[in-house]
């Protein structure tokens, strides 16, 4: 039975390369055509493969529907949370997870720091979109036309002297973030708080969420916080791998 299942599953990546006839399937599996035909018929009955009018087989619509349903039911917060806790245990600082939704970037998880100083951020609350490191990652990943249109509609409050002053400056910052693959907020929202963020990507390679490490200047300097970037990126990559099934390509 296990060999039969293995052979049937081996057909799917073959058909992902493009339609194939019975002989090609049999050759790839190293089996007689009658065996390949039985496997293909079973997969066809379940909607996982489809036989075209030219007698070649391709992947069936049911397979794509199952894949889409699986993606929609993935809970990125549930997957990420153990990783966020582990990162917090390693560095001691506040760790956030955020997503871009309906033109806002929202915190969906938070692990508090070990020290008495607490950040005001709350799960479900929008971030300061023009300065927050997680927001920069989410917006930088948007297609250029959408990114520009969104940025030009934003207001640019000067929370501190380091806040992003206008759309032109923000677009320049987002281009830098897109190129380097990570982002910072060094006193842009609160003078005393620094933050560094890394992306979590979905199966399509797009940014599905962004995670960050934040700490006040009284605990660590901005330069000291930036030394955690490799650890942060490894954590984000681990979440990406578990969430999407793809291997990240962190430099």
From TrEMBL:
The residue ranges of the HTH iclR-type domain are: 2-61
Q: Record keywords: Secreted included?
A: no
One family name in Pfam for this protein: IclR_C
Concerning InterPro entries, the annotation shows:
GAF-like_dom_sf (IPR029016), HTH_MetabolicPath_Reg (IPR050707), Tscrpt_reg_IclR_C (IPR014757), Tscrpt_reg_IclR_N (IPR005471), WH-like_DNA-bd_sf (IPR036388), WH_DNA-bd_sf (IPR036390)
- Is 4Fe-4S set as a keyword in this record? no
Among SMART domains, the record links this protein to: HTH_ICLR
Record key words, sorted: DNA-binding, Transcription, Transcription regulation
- Residue intervals passing through the bilayer: none
Which residue ranges does the record assign to the IclR-ED domain? 62-245
- Name of the featured protein: IclR family transcriptional regulator
Upper classification of the source organism reads:
Bacteria, Bacillati, Actinomycetota, Actinomycetes, Kitasatosporales
